[in-house]
Amino acid sequence: MALKNSSDGRTRSSIQIFIVVGLCCFFYILGAWQRSGFGKGDSIALEISKSGADCNIVPNLNFETHHGGEVLSSDDSETKSKVFEPCHPRYTDYTPCQDQKRAMTFPREDMNYRERHCPREEEKLHCLIPAPKGYVTPFPWPKSRDYVPYANAPYKSLTVEKAIQNWIQYEGNVFRFPGGGTQFPQGADKYIDQLASVIPIKNGTVRTALDTGCGVASWGAYLWSRNVIAMSFAPRDSHEAQVQFALERGVPAVIGVLGTIKVPYPSRAFDMAHCSRCLIPWGANDGKYMMEVDRVLRPGGYWVLSGPPINWKNNYKAWQRPKEDLEEEQRKIEEAAKRLCWEKKSEKGEIAIWQKRVNDDSCRDRQVSFCKAGDVDDVWYKKMEQCITPYPDVSGSDKVAGGEIKPFPERLYAIPPRIASGSIPGVTVESYQEDNDKWKKHVNAYKKINRLIDSGRYRNIMDMNAGFGGFAAAIQNPKLWVMNVMPTIAEKNTLGVIYERGLIGIYHDWCEGFSTYPRTYDLIHAHGVFSLYKDKCNIEDILLEMDRILRPEGAVIFRDEVDTIIKVKKIIGGMRWDTKMVDHEDGPLVPEKILVAVKQYWVGNSTSAQ
């Protein structure tokens, strides 16, 4: 009897071993099949590309057969999702960290009240920001440069206040932007031609630009055709909805101001900085704001100042200002420029142009106050100081401090100087190139999942966790631009690398609201964001902020670990988003998954909550 039991046990063990070996072989062959490009994810993507589906981007996947996850199945979790109600229509243009009522409780000195002041935990909204009645999808670029639907930003005050200066005109149900500005009533193109007679704008040397006090960002809008991308900023409501108009036009812009804290950009980021009657007191506080421009200006970069007090002797009567005040103002600016060792290249009409020297060889005898040694890119909520940021070292035969940058578009995939010099711990040239290859592969998969990516449908794109900018580089297209966000808690600070590639970006903490108006991005990419912020802040708050800044019928691509994706999917089940899960392009056995979401179209009404 005992012998028979022993024989049966051996038989069962043999069968179990056979089953395990068989399953291993099956999954090995399945994985190889997936990696070959003919797996489930790719076949679905191919089907979508042929069918031309728009909102229902991918059909249902039998995801539960691949992973159990920490929570219930997708269908069960969706039925138990918390439902988020619409906010009251008064919040249609709500900007949480630039709220006007809260701003007025802070000091006006040095524009402190216009800076970021975010709500306390108990003040945060937990509802969905509604679109205004009549909201429509913006016009595609380049038509959007010149026309914005009135319903999307129904504010007419600038059409009266800036009528003579050709900022904006109201025509029927649209706003028209003739391309004028306070300093260029004849149009931005002619104004840029004047700058181009001094600054090498055409050959790709100048690629990234900073526009301080941008108005409706016509300068940045017209630089686009010259392959220059401008980061524009202006304070909330100094002129009604100016930044909102810029983003509706499809021009990169954020709400911001030169005040008491450093601007959220890395050192040596911009090839050119610009102020056209931006009302910034450049000569005040020993030129503190010029020192901040110097920090973010690349060695060899240009600073343009047009309008008062430039050439005050010929213009003080037209400006209706005392010539003594203007003379003193320009004297302070000239002195600050000398302390910064900028070379004045031109002063013609009301435009003056300075160039930052490529290194400090001719400036070493300056008797100035330099900033203390430390991380010059550690700027988030750091006080602006009255000190000059030292030049980085010059290495080898290169005469440019920090390394010479290739012209654009060559610089997009050239090795950035910060990588080549080894200044980012743990990053090598090889790992950087591998990252580029990885993102080319990822973006190719995205384009199969959602064929609208290359169509011009998505103009304003955000990458919430940008890394080296691989996603933005791989998706690069004249029809779109990417706001590369560097989380302040990221393991490696690589925003400087992103700028060296000829891309733009900004530092941000996703536990807080982003410095933009609602409905300003068409497509949001969130790679590893929720794993990064796990236990840092509430996932729900981040998702509600994403909903605030995403346009109706805009899309989101989440890429994260499967358990994190399931949690995210459960929350957005109550946010009026349509979602579909997609396997990693290498097959269903890879734990990283893709979740594609599309925000439904809806507008506010007087019965909305909160």
Please render the helix and strand layout as text.
Blueprint: H1 2-38, H2 40-51, H3 74-79, H4 100-103, H5 143-146, E1 147-149, H6 157-161, E2 169-171, E3 174-176, H7 188-196, E4 208-212, H8 218-223, E5 229-234, H9 242-248, E6 253-255, E7 270-276, H10 288-296, E8 297-306, H11 312-319, H12 323-339, E9 342-348, E10 351-356, H13 417-420, H14 429-449, E11 460-463, H15 470-474, E12 481-487, H16 495-500, E13 504-508, E14 521-527, H17 529-532, H18 539-549, E15 550-561, H19 562-572, E16 577-582, E17 592-599
Parallel strand pairs: 4-5, 4-7, 5-6, 7-8, 11-12, 11-14, 12-13, 14-15
Antiparallel strand pairs: 1-3, 2-3, 8-10, 9-10, 15-17, 16-17
Describe the protein's architecture and organization.
One of its GO terms (cellular component) is endosome. The protein has helices spanning 2-38, 40-51, 74-79, 100-103, 143-146, 157-161, 188-196, 218-223, 242-248, 288-296, 312-319, 323-339, 417-420, 429-449, 470-474, 495-500, 529-532, 539-549, 562-572, and strands at residues 147-149, 169-171, 174-176, 208-212, 229-234, 253-255, 270-276, 297-306, 342-348, 351-356, 460-463, 481-487, 504-508, 521-527, 550-561, 577-582, 592-599. The protein is of the alpha/beta class and 610 residues long. The strands form three sheets. Strands 6-5-4-7-8-10-9 form a seven-stranded mixed sheet, with helices on both faces. It has a seven-stranded mixed sheet with strand order 13-12-11-14-15-17-16. Strands 1-3-2 form a three-stranded antiparallel sheet. Residues 1-12 and 27-78 have low confidence and may be disordered.
